[in-house]
Design goal:
This protein is α/β, with parallel strands linked by helices. Helix content is 38%, strand content 24%.
């Protein structure tokens, strides 16, 4: 039974996690930088610990955060979203120090964070994926040859990317040649790794994501879908749940796909499986987010299920 959780985040999501802790009768410890000393999550938590003067770096120091969890008597840690939430190092350090990480295993975080490895896992599980490369591109020449096979338009993507960064659409060979080095540079700067791959561009797709929850006994369920098709520069603007664009048959089908995807990698805790739906009504796996998403609250509204509380119970 978890008695005390370190909330390794700030702002709205930290307040959200603290609230769930209190409702479950669990103590919550917050962390904060000098700039956040008067933030609401600091006031709401049972305890709060200063992690330095830099407004960001303290939240990215996995070793210090886990040391603080151990020193303050926390037996679990919730990463929230952003910062270290999809960094397998944090989950690994928690495991070594005997602190429960409220999220999936570091192996799954690492596997799903690598878009090539994620594609391989989904192909093995029989989940439809967008046509594209099954390995990181070695050169712009290889990208050009694969683009000819796939057919334009194509997407150049950072293998370890996310958040709408490290992505460029190419409608011609000239655009591919112009964008290749840009994407490599963006991948290196934003994610610390220069690897990129190529996929067929799904034109004007519907973007549908499915909320899943799995436990350590191999049981996995989905909590229906969210429609995030309205975007700007690959950033989601509006989320709708359930999707008004799906038929009941499509809703049932995509839910089963998401559960199969989660079971295929042994997913435990809350996560999201994202799909694109093309103009021919074909679903394609896009990626899996190995954390609680910002938009989890609208799923809670339509289901009446407190996802953060379920995360804690599963851990």
């Amino acid at each position: 039974m978890i008695k005390k959780i370190l909330v390794a985040n700030r702002g709205e999501i930290a307040v959200r996690i603290v609230r769930a802790c209190k409702e479950l009768g669990i103590k919550a410890a917050a962390i904060y930088t000098d700039a956040d000393r008067h933030a609401l999550h600091v006031k709401k938590a049972d305890q709060a610990f200063n992690i330095g003067s830099d407004p960001v770096l303290g939240y990215l120091n996995a070793h210090n955060i886990v040391n603080l969890a151990v020193a303050s008597g926390c037996d679990a840690l919730h990463p929230g979203y952003g910062f270290l939430s999809e960094n397998p190092l944090l989950a690994e350090i928690c495991a070594r120090r005997g602190v429960k990480f409220i999220g999936p295993s570091p192996e799954v975080i690492r596997q799903m964070g690598d878009k090539i490895e994620a594609r391989k896992a989904m192909i093995k599980a029989g989940i439809p994926v967008i046509p594209g490369s099954d390995h990181n591109l070695e050169s712009v020449e290889e990208a050009r040859e694969l683009a000819k096979q796939i057919g334009y338009p194509v997407m150049l993507k950072a293998t370890n990317g996310g958040g709408g960064r490290g992505i460029r659409r190419c409608d011609s060979e000239a655009e591919l040649l112009k964008n290749y080095e840009r994407v490599v540079s963006e991948a290196s700067k934003a994610f610390g790794k220069p690897e990129v791959f190529i996929e067929k561009c799904v034109v004007t797709p519907k973007h549908i994501e499915v909320q899943i929850i799995g436990d350590s006994h191999g049981d996995t369920v989905h909590l229906y879908e969210r429609d995030c098709s309205i975007q700007r520069r690959n950033q989601k603007l509006i989320e709708i749940a359930p999707s008004p664009q799906l038929t009941e048959a499509q809703r049932e089908y995509i839910g089963k796909l998401a559960v199969r995807a989660a079971k295929a990698v042994g997913y435990v805790n809350a996560g999201t499986v994202e799909f694109l739906l093309d103009r021919d009504n074909q679903f394609y796996f896009m990626e899996m987010n190995t954390r609680l998403q910002v938009e989890h609250t609208i799923t809670e509204q339509i289901t009446g299920i407190d996802i953060v509380q379920e995360q804690i119970r599963i851990a």
